[in-house]
Amino acid sequence: MRPNITLELRVLLVEDDPNLGFLLQDVLHDAGYLVSLCQEGGAALLELSKSHIDICLLDIMLPTMDGFALAKKIRSSHPDIPFLFMTARSLKEDTLRGYALGAADYVTKPFDEEILLCKIKAILNRSNSEGEASVPTERIFTIGSYRFNYEAHSLHQGNNYLRLTEKENEVLYLLCSNINKVVRRDDAVERIYGKRDYFLGRSFDVFISKLRKHLRADPSIKIENVYRVGFILTDGG
User: Fold this and answer.
1) 74, 103 in Cβ contact below 8 A?
2) What is the structure's pLDDT at 83?
3) 1 assigned to some structural domain
4) Shared domain check, 33 and 111
5) 182 and 123: one domain?
6) Helix segments in 36-100, DSSP class H
7) What is the pLDDT of residue 129?
8) Is residue 91 domain-shared with residue 148, that is, in the same domain?
9) Which of 71, 100, 130 represents a domain boundary (last residue)?
10) Is the N-terminal amide bond of 110 cis, ω within 30° of 0?
11) Are β-strands 154-157 and 83-87 bridged in parallel, bridged antiparallel, or unpaired?
């Protein structure tokens, strides 16, 4: 089921394929978003300068200015606007480069439109939550003997280094943003996945288990279950 929202959130869609561009524009509009469609980077930057944009969907293979270069300019002039890359290429190097530039997510064409809509909703939910006073603005956390860099998807302990997956990164960020506070499981699932669902909840539990393994070298750090409520990350170091 598509999200039922009001026409107040604006998406900047940058796609040089007119057929796909118009198709995605219709999908997004039907889901309740206002959409500004551009086919190249210069037009996209002009649209950003004159319109309020809540999220950008960027194709990577664009004429004159590729999506990476465009994202860098957007990040420089509008650091608070999240962006998501769309690409027909599935190279690991492209994915890592996209995340290094600050991409909120990455989808490979062809993609399911319902999954894209869920990703957009989840990104906007995170963006709104991060603007609240209760959420720290810093993206680097020290937990016990570990150093967690959200932007780099990295977890360090001394000379040991681990690159986190996308979902591991998001779940750990949520826990670290609420250190020593209970994170309600249903709320966490909705924030990470964009909706509440039993099977997504089971997937969320898997990432909690993975994070426990990643952090097990420091016994002062615990991710505890709070029965029928959620989880709490405690740092006793």
Assistant:
1) no
2) 92
3) no
4) yes
5) no
6) 41-50, 67-77, 92-100
7) 59
8) no
9) 130
10) yes
11) unpaired
- 3-class SS at 157? strand
pTM for this predicted structure: 0.53
- The CATH number covering residue 119 comes to 3.40.50.2300
Q: Which of 94, 111, 130 is the last residue of a domain?
A: 130
Are the C-beta atoms of 58 and 33 separated by less than 8 Å?
no
Instruction: Look up residue 158 and give its two tokens.
Output: 């001394």
Going from the first residue of the chain to its last (237 residues), give the mean pLDDT of each consecutive group of 10, the final group possibly shorter.
51 94 92 91 90 91 92 87 86 80 85 88 76 50 89 86 90 90 89 83 91 94 92 83
| Alpha carbon distances (Å) from 49 to 7, 32, 57, 140 | 20, 23, 16, 30
The tokens of 60 are what? 């990577």
Q: Determine the number of helices (DSSP H) and then strands (DSSP E) in the chain.
A: 8, 12
The pair of structure tokens assigned to 57 is 């969907």
Provide the residue range defining the domain that includes 193: 140-235
